[in-house]
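Work Package 4 report. The design task specified in the project plan requires that, given a folded chain encoded as structure tokens, an amino acid be chosen for each position. We show below one input record used in the internal validation round.
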């Protein structure tokens, strides 16, 4: 249970999300999508991420909202001293098992991201990383940003690799009577509260969920993310917008030389993913 207080309604949504991710975890672990033990953990990263992250050997790194640790292992292989944090008890159990099977020394902690300082320690990390599909589960971005700042050492940085809000606004499939064109079907901008989703199947292959199918997501525009980080006291070092995705969101996407996917050359080039690096001042 999170010690970070929310109103009753939002608190219920956060608890529903935790139950949903507990239910998703066994499906994900068994899926071909994650291919646990068979997929190179580095394949979850866009090429520009490694350039932005720089040398990680010997650095203290926290991976927030790490789920089953598919990406977390890559940091350990780069020589970082890694701690993963997730609010799903089921995911943390699996992350520990997977890391042990890979021979990776990673500390995994079960906690809500807003409670990370209490569980991990203030001023401890050189790098805080949060990966794809994480920010949409944050109901209060300023609280999260304050947590990140407190986790970082002076001179440390946060790196956000996240699906672009434009990707979220483009519907994944046509509505009734619509053609195959990519259309704006959802909000890009924040401000309308949580979006309720009731999905029997998760984003991977595998069987349907048997319980806890409802989850809640909050839209966060790129402007909101950047402004929130700056107001929390961080300096924006870089912002990369990319046409790449780690899986084919739409059937007509084609695999690139990096192994990731992009829309065909004849389509407009639009951002589907972004990488944002922001540093904590040394004084």
């Amino acid at each position: 249970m999170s010690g970070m207080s929310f109103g009753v309604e939002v608190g219920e949504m956060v608890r529903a999300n935790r139950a949903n991710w507990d239910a998703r975890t066994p499906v994900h672990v068994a899926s071909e999508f994650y291919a646990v033990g068979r997929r190179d953990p580095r394949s979850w990263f866009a090429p520009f991420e490694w350039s932005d992250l720089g040398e990680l050997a010997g650095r203290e790194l926290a991976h927030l909202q790490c789920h089953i640790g598919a990406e977390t292992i890559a940091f350990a292989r780069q020589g970082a001293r890694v701690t993963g944090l997730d609010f799903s008890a089921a995911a943390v159990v699996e992350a520990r098992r997977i890391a042990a099977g890979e021979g990776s020394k990673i500390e995994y902690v079960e906690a809500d991201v807003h409670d990370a300082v209490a569980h991990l320690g203030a001023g401890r990390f050189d790098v805080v990383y949060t990966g794809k599909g994480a920010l949409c589960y944050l109901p209060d971005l300023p609280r999260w940003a304050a947590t990140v700042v407190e986790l970082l050492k002076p001179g440390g940085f946060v790196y956000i690799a996240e699906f672009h809000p434009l990707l979220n606004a483009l519907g994944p499939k046509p509505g009734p009577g619509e053609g195959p064109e990519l259309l704006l079907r959802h909000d890009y901008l924040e401000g309308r509260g949580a979006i309720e989703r009731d999905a029997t199947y998760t984003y991977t292959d595998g069987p349907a969920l048997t319980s806890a199918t409802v989850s809640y997501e909050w839209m966060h525009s790129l402007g909101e993310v950047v402004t929130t980080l700056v107001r929390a006291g961080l300096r924006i070092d870089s912002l990369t917008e990319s046409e790449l995705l780690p899986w084919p969101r739409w059937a007509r996407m084609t695999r690139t030389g990096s192994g990731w996917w992009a829309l065909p050359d004849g389509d407009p080039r639009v951002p589907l993913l972004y990488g944002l690096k922001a540093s904590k001042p040394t004084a």
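Residues 141 and 261 are 29 Å apart (CA to CA). Validation will be extended to a larger panel in the next phase.
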